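User: Hey, my collaborator sent me this sequence without any context and asked if I could get a structure. I don't really work with proteins. Can you help?
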Amino acid sequence: MLYTYDYLSLHPNSMAAVSDSRTSEHLGTHDCHTPPTYTCFSLNQTLRRLEAKIDSVAEKAELVETRCVNLAIRRRNFAIYSYESVSSEKKVMVLPRKENAGDGVHLANALLPEGLVPLAPFSDEKTPDVGSAPNNGTVDVNIPLSHQEILKLIQFYNEDFGILSQDDLCTRQIRFQRWLRT
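Assistant: No problem. I've predicted the 3D structure and written it out in C-alpha cell form, which is a compact way to encode the shape of the chain:
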C-alpha cells in the first residue's frame, strides 16, 4: 500500500496526516469520532523543517543587528576621522563587527605579499562568530599596520577590504582605513 503525507498548514498544531493514495479517504484526518494519527517520520520531518526555519530567522536577525551596530560604528569613525584630521594627531577608531561567517584565510593568502608565510586556517572552535570584533575592538590608525596584521584582519573578517594583490603596504593601509569609515 502506498502512503502519502498531507501537510495541513492552516491549523497551528497541524502535522502530516497519513492517507492512502489509492483512495481519497484520509486515514489520519480528524473527525469527531477518531483522533488523528501521525507517523513518527512525519512528525520528525515537520519538526526538522520548523527548526531549520527558526535557525534561519535567528541567523538573519543576528546579521541585521550586526549591520546596524556597524553602521553606528562607521558613522562614529567617519566623524572622528573628519574631526580629528583637523584638530589632533590621534585617530583611534572602533573596529566594526564581523558580518561574514567563516574563515577568510583563502582571501588573506590570495593577497599574500612575496616573502610572507601563508596564514593557517582557524580551527573550527576558534573561527570568530558573526558579531564579534578582534583584539580590543579599536585601532589607532596613526600606528601603521603591517602586511601581516592586515592579512590577519582579512582572515578574521572574511573580507578583503577592497585590497588588490598588487597593492603596496601604504595602499593596503589606506584601503583598510577607508573600510573602517564607509
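In plain terms: Residues 1-28 have pLDDT under 50 and may be disordered. You can pass these C-alpha cells on to your collaborator as they are.
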